[in-house]
C-alpha cells in the first residue's frame, strides 16, 4: 500500500509566450502590464508508511524554499539554478534520515521547520494512517457505529467529504475497525473522478469521494 501527502498553491505565472500556443482567447483578455496570472501548482510525496503529518511538513519546507528563493515553475532559469538545493533536501530526507525503531522511536530532523518522526504505538491495530479522532469528530458516535455495522454486513459504504486530507484518514479508520477481519471487496479511500463508475458496481465497497 502506498500513502501520499500533497500541498497545492498558486504561483505567479510569467511565461506568457506559452499561452500563445495554447489559449489565444485568454491572451486577448489579459492585460499583461496590469493583470497578474496565477497557475495552480501541486507537489506530492509518496511513502509506504502513513506519516501524513511529517510528509506534509516536509513538503511545506520545500514550498518555503521555493517561495523564499523566488523561483517558479514558469521561470525555467530560476528553477534550474535552485534545483541542486532542492535535491540536497530530498537526498537528505530520503537517504540520511533513519526510520524510527523500538530503540529509537523518535527521530528529530532539523530543517527550517523541524520535523519529528515518531514510531507508531503497537496497539494491536494495523498501521495504515487511520484517524479515529477525525472519524468520531466528523461522524459522531451513532453514525460511526452505523457505518461499522454496514461494513460488517458488507454493504456499499460511500463516505463523502470536501476535505480530502480528512477523508483518507476517516475511510482508513472505517477499514481498521473491521480488524481482525479484512475487507475483501473494492476499497478506495480517495476515489478520483475518473473512477466514479465504480459506484455502480454490483458488489460491496468502501469508497471515499470528495466530489
UniProtKB/TrEMBL annotation:
InterPro entries: cDENN_dom, DENN_C, DENN_Domain_GEFs, Tripartite_DENN. It comes from the Eukaryota. GO terms for cellular component: cytoplasmic vesicle. GO terms for biological process: regulation of Rab protein signal transduction. Transmembrane segments: none annotated. Pfam families: DENN. GO terms for molecular function: guanyl-nucleotide exchange factor activity. Residues 1-211 form the UDENN domain. This is UDENN domain-containing protein. The lineage of its organism: Eukaryota, Metazoa, Spiralia, Gnathifera, Rotifera.
Amino acid at each position: 500500500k502506498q500513502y501520499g501527502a500533497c500541498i497545492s498553491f498558486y504561483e505567479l505565472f510569467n511565461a506568457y509566450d506559452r499561452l500563445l500556443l495554447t489559449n489565444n482567447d485568454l491572451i486577448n483578455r489579459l492585460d499583461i502590464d496590469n493583470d497578474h496570472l496565477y497557475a495552480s501548482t501541486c507537489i506530492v510525496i509518496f511513502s509506504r508508511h502513513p506519516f501524513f503529518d511529517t510528509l506534509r511538513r516536509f513538503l511545506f519546507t520545500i514550498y518555503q524554499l521555493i517561495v523564499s528563493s523566488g523561483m517558479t515553475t514558469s521561470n525555467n532559469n530560476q528553477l534550474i539554478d535552485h534545483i541542486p538545493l532542492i535535491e540536497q533536501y530530498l537526498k537528505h530526507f530520503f537517504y540520511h534520515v533513519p526510520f524510527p525503531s523500538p530503540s529509537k522511536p523518535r527521530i528529530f530532523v532539523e530543517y527550517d521547520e523541524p520535523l519529528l518522526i515518531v514510531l507508531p504505538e503497537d496497539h494491536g491495530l494495523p498501521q495504515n494512517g487511520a484517524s479515529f479522532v477525525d472519524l468520531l469528530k466528523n461522524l459522531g458516535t451513532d453514525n460511526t457505529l452505523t457505518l461499522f455495522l454496514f461494513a460488517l454486513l458488507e454493504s456499499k459504504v460511500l463516505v463523502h467529504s470536501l476535505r480530502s486530507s480528512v477523508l483518507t484518514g476517516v475511510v482508513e479508520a472505517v477499514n481498521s475497525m473491521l480488524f481482525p477481519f479484512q475487507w475483501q471487496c473494492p476499497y478506495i479511500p480517495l476515489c478520483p473522478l475518473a473512477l466514479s463508475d465504480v459506484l455502480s458496481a454490483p458488489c460491496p465497497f468502501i469508497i471515499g469521494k470528495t466530489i
